[in-house]
Every structure is written in structure tokens, then in C-alpha cells.
From TrEMBL:
Signal peptide coordinates: none
Keywords: FAD, Flavoprotein
InterPro entries: BaiN-like, BaiN-like_dom_sf, FAD/NAD-bd_sf, RsdA/BaiN/AoA(So)-like_dom, RsdA/BaiN/AoA(So)_Rossmann
Domain RsdA/BaiN/AoA(So)-like insert: residue ranges: 185-346
Protein name as it appears in the record: NAD(P)/FAD-dependent oxidoreductase
Length: 404
């Protein structure tokens, strides 16, 4: 008789688990509390679905046990992921290591997975809210009860709640005895204390962004910084944001240092500015950085450096030039909070990975219970890494649940 596998959650990880479990010969039912499967998948990669990334830096995954992810990724690799989607009929394209469907449409990926699930006879039950998982692997829902031989909990996190991520999976895991590391927003914007952000809102510029918690460097990244009316955004901010969220949650002082001209060392920048002062002494002082930075941001920095009082460039003092160098290379901003879960791409935190076997994805507490995807305390950096985690963990869980 076929093993009865129940998968809770029809996101990327749950759908991948369903395919792999069914291919192992199991009878699979996927339960989804929203009206349609794969809603969050449709929004990934700005709707283009960044399936994976050919590069795998050591710091790509974070959590209380950051090494937990790598045995799972080695069990189902990037290469195997690409073969998996090619087998579903998806033509892939690669741009600087980033892998997308050639159609440029996330819907293509979702539809291909749904076609395969239908072909394999997998049953997807939507608008089905799971209320409890009993230790005998009976699943209690608002549509009745169903007993499984194996259960895969792939219910997602709390990030992007409009796509169905409501954190309900955490409660299900907690009631079964699993520890939940406090979920916090990750890959998210940071809100800052200073008032000048409103004046520079909309500016995008290359920057090195360094996060400090209680004065110690916690993380840094370089890329396109986006200034908003409340603080900072952009890929380098997203990459460090999970550390900011956790430090703020622990009551630490969180600051960010912005290097707005990362190509220039301090001494070279000072030489450049002194030369500009000599060359353009006849210009209005507010135009001192004309051609160096976006004019909106330049005016803010001139004010921060105390240069706003001067009428002409030639009146700027050497001390003010040094202050301006500091503002350009080491602009300190105080972080007061992250944006909320509705702005976050993923969560930091989740089911404690110490209680999960990384070889099989099976719970160490409840035999026959498996986990996959964002519900676990694993979060990746931007660039296809969170979807790769969904595929690797989901397919690994599906294989072992289907075989076990």
C-alpha cells in the first residue's frame, strides 16, 4: 500500500516536496490555507523568478546554525535543481550567475510544477486551514481530519503576509514541542533616526554599507544604496538587515556607516576636494560637490559637514573639507527599526535546526514529521539563494518522507 504523505503548505518548498515524494511512489496530499498554490513564488525575482545562483559563497545562508543548510544543498545541488526544472520543460537562462526561466515569468515555473503534480496524481486542497498536527500524525483541519504516514511541514514564514505567509506553521511546530527562534524580518529596509532622509529621498548611489551592533562590526555589503524618506534600502541594506533585526530585538545599539565613495581612499578624497576648492573657488559653496554625487544627497552632506554657511567654495575651510571627507566616507546613521513583515522578503528565525536532521529533514522529536523551506531557521542572501533553499530542502524532505 502506498505511503500517505501530507504536505502542509503549497509554496515553492511544499510543491517541490510533493513532486519528489510522489516520484518515490507515495500518495501525496498538499494542504494550502489560501485560495491558490504558489502565490509567493509568483512574486520572486520581481516576478521573473530567480530560480537559483551558480555561485555559492560561504556566507550565503544565515541562522543560529548557519552550517545546517550546506549538507542539504549538497544533497540536492544547484546543478540538480537546474536539471529538475529542465525536466519540467523550463528553458533556463543565466546572467552573471543568476538563473531565471527564459520566459522571464515566475508563472512559467509555477505552472510547470502544477502540471507535474497533476500528472503524478498529487491532490492539492486549497482554502484548507490546518488547526493541529497530532503526534500520531493526524492532521486536523477546518475541513476534517486526515491521518498520514508522514507529514512535511512547509508552511512558510511570516514574510510577505499578502502572499499567505501568516506564521501559522510556527504554532503547529511549537505545539509538537519544537523550539521557535523568534521570527524577525530579513531582506528588508532599515528605518533611521535622522531627519535628513526626506530631503534625499529617491537617490540611488553606489555605497559600502557597514552595520555595527554595540559598536562592533556585524556585517557589510556594497552595492546600490537607495535613500528613502525614512531611511535606507537597496540590495546591500537587505543583505545586512537580518543582523540589524536580531540586534534590535536584543536591545543593542544599531548603527550603519555609509561610505558613499568606496572607490576612493580617505587621503585621495581629501586631495580631490582640496583640488576642487582651488579650481572652483568662484562657484557657490552649495555646488562644491557638483558632478561628484547626486545633487539632493550632496546638499544634505554639505549641511552635515557645516559647509552650508559658506557663500563661495573659496570660503570653505580646511577643517570643513575634512568634515566633508568624513561625511562622504564614514556617514553614521542610527537604525531605529526594520520595516515590518509585509515589506520583508524572508524571515530570520523559525524552527530551531538543532531539532531537525539535515540529512533527511526529519524532526528529531516527532518520528515521521519533516520540515522544509522558510519555516526553518535558515535565511539566505538576495540572489536566488532562498529559492534554492526551498528546492533543496523540499526535495530532500519529499524523497526521505516518500521512501521512509
Amino acid at each position: 500500500m502506498k505511503k500517505q504523505i501530507i504536505i502542509i503548505g503549497a509554496g515553492a518548498s511544499g510543491l517541490a516536496a510533493g513532486i519528489s515524494a510522489a516520484r518515490e511512489g507515495a500518495s501525496v496530499t498538499i494542504m494550502e490555507h489560501t485560495a491558490r498554490p504558489g502565490k509567493k513564488l509568483l512574486s520572486t525575482g520581481n516576478g521573473k523568478c530567480n530560480i537559483t545562483n551558480l555561485q555559492l559563497p560561504a556566507e550565503a545562508y544565515r541562522g543560529n546554525q548557519p552550517d545546517f543548510a550546506y549538507p542539504v544543498l549538497n544533497a540536492f545541488t544547484v546543478s540538480q535543481t537546474m536539471d529538475f526544472f529542465k525536466d519540467l520543460g523550463i528553458v533556463l537562462t543565466e546572467r552573471n550567475g543568476y538563473v531565471y526561466p527564459n520566459t522571464g515569468q515566475a508563472a512559467t515555473v509555477l505552472e510547470a510544477m502544477l502540471f507535474e503534480l497533476e500528472h503524478l496524481g498529487v491532490r492539492i486542497v486549497t482554502d484548507c486551514r490546518v488547526e493541529e498536527i497530532k503526534k500520531d500524525l493526524t492532521v486536523v483541519t477546518d475541513k476534517g481530519k486526515q491521518k498520514g504516514d508522514r507529514i512535511i511541514l512547509a508552511a512558510g514564514s511570516m514574510a510577505a503576509p499578502k502572499t499567505g505567509s501568516d506564521g501559522s506553521g510556527y504554532d503547529l511546530a511549537r505545539k509538537l514541542g519544537h523550539r521557535i527562534i523568534t521570527p524577525l524580518p530579513a531582506l528588508v529596509q532599515l528605518r533611521c533616526k535622522e531627519k535628513w532622509y526626506r530631503q534625499a529621498a529617491g537617490v540611488r548611489t553606489d555605497a559600502l554599507v557597514t552595520l555595527k551592533t554595540d559598536g562592533k562590526t556585524a556585517a557589510s555589503d556594497r552595492g546600490e544604496l537607495q535613500i528613502t524618506d525614512y531611511g535606507i534600502s537597496g540590495i546591500p541594506v537587505f543583505q545586512i538587515s537580518r543582523y540589524a533585526a536580531r540586534a534590535l530585538n536584543e536591545g543593542q545599539q544599531v548603527t550603519v556607516q555609509l561610505d558613499l565613495l568606496p572607490e576612493l581612499p580617505f587621503s585621495d578624497l581629501e586631495t580631490l576636494l582640496l583640488e576642487r576648492q582651488r579650481r572652483f573657488g568662484y562657484r557657490p559653496a552649495e555646488e562644491f560637490l557638483h558632478g561628484v554625487l547626486n545633487s539632493k544627497l550632496a546638499k544634505v552632506l554639505l549641511k552635515e559637514a557645516g559647509i552650508i554657511r559658506a557663500s563661495w567654495v573659496k570660503e570653505i575651510t580646511t577643517r570643513e573639507v575634512k568634515n566633508l571627507v568624513r561625511c562622504l566616507k564614514d556617514l553614521k546613521t542610527v537604525i531605529v527599526s526594520t520595516n515590518a513583515f509585509d515589506q520583508a522578503q524572508v524571515c530570520s528565525g523559525g524552527v530551531d535546526t538543532k531539532e531537525v536532521d539535515p540529512v533527511t529533514m526529519e524532526s528529531k522529536l516527532i518520528k515521521g514529521l519533516y520540515f522544509s523551506g522558510e519555516i526553518l531557521d535558515v535565511d539566505g542572501i538576495c540572489g536566488g539563494y532562498n529559492l534554492q533553499w526551498a528546492w533543496s530542502s523540499g526535495i530532500t524532505a519529499g524523497i526521505h518522507a516518500g521512501r521512509g
